[in-house]
Amino acid sequence: MLSVICILLVSFFPLIIVSLNLTLPHQHPYPEAVVQDVQRKVNESFSRRQVLDATINTQCQTGNPIDDCWRCDPNWSKNRQRLADCAIGFGQGAMGGKNGKYYVVSDSSDTDVVNPKPGTLRHAVIQDEPLWIIFSGDMYIILKHELIVNSYKTIDGRGAKVHITGNGCITLQYISNVIIHNIHIYNCRPSGNTDIRSTPTHVGRRGRSDGDGISIFNSRNIWIDHCALSHCTDGLIDAIMGSTGITISNSYFTHHDEVMLLGHDDGYLPDSGMQVTIAFNHFGVGLVQRMPRCRRGYIHVVNNDFTEWQMYAIGGSANPTINSQGNRYTAPVDANAKEVTKRVDTDEGEWSDWNWRTEGDVMVNGAFFVPSGEGMSNQYAKASSMEPQSGAIIDQLTLNAGVFGAPRDNSISISYGGGTTTGATGSGSGGPTANGENDFFGMMFGSATPQKLSTTTTILMSLLIILVLYITNNYGGQLSLQLLLLLLL
């Protein structure tokens, strides 16, 4: 079988490179244009703020283009779906449940994951039609197992205090167009090895999950805004396996070790097409590392407030592009942890050509960013048609980061009967494997015993996936099926 794969890869590899260029079907072809569009929208919001009297409406004209887009309307609650027009960055195409019906969650229970009760959040998110999901009042939703969300859904917590916690938490897998807004998400634990309904017509066996707050797996057009995340077993937000078109904005992260992972594995080539915007977030107390940790892809980190880390703020491997603009980085007291950046397990001779750049960032308490590649030159800044807003205005841009009206230090902890989860260092079998990677095959196929894959195997499988995609796109599904049958023989 391995020899067949090698022969096919040798035959098709030049065509794959030319035709797909290791891209994902839905990634933006000009990421720099998206970056400049974010800058333009921030500049426009600040110009409007300077012209108008901001004291007329303290919730309006903040200079934050997302918030000013909908909060300036005093009757926003009667036109909730306008929020879908307010995203910026790579996830701005996320429609959520726009133009769909409103679904009011009136029951906070989660007792049956195969036949969820109407009126519950689980029943709402699995529906096939676009839905704008709102809540009848304040709710603490303790999940029995991971909440598998279907495409074209908005989970809109505005006007209520909505807390999601428990087993598995939120999973976005093989779907698109989801908006998650104004939700507390915390104390998420591994769970699984059970049947869970993901659509009205499909129930599938789920392996053990990792305990992420939000897990994004091979999904696109995702927007996470004004959420508060803390105290999960694995990542607060992880995006892997060919996910792209993501914006994470206005959120508040606290009390966690490995905050955010973007990219599954150094050898997983499709993640080269991952594009993520991280904007106007507050990275607060009790954080250690990965804000984010990137593998491949293009990551735009713009106008965030990093007030604490213990190891590093932004890290990466496998040559991601990291564009840091207008952030404020406040270094810890530890003299050995002043550097913002970390090239993970990579020699300088290899990462010196990686495009990591800093522009308009404010460094506090001895913080320093080590640029590389194009980031070492001033040519990029000179070529840009507009300047990003400086980190000096970060207080205004992140004024309302997190859930509206919630305290900034989210040290929430909840008891599960067998003890209290207060940290992010759980050792459940659904967490990382011994070599520090996630068991994504276990998640997909229900294997309780993850198998360690070699780098060579991972690369071959990645190329095989690209090969099948190429044949599907150019020659149709029948030939792809024949190829798969051949490989399985």
UniProtKB/TrEMBL annotation:
A GO molecular function held by the record: pectate lyase activity
Transmembrane intervals: 453-472
Family annotation (Gene3D superfamilies): Single-stranded right-handed beta-helix, Pectin lyase-like (2.160.20.10)
Cofactor: Ca(2+)
GO biological process, one term: pectin catabolic process
EC number from the UniProt entry: 4.2.2.2
Secretion signal, residue range per the UniProt entry: 1-19
Enzyme kind, highest EC tier: lyase
Assigned protein family: Belongs to the polysaccharide lyase 1 family.
Name of the molecule in the record: Pectate lyase
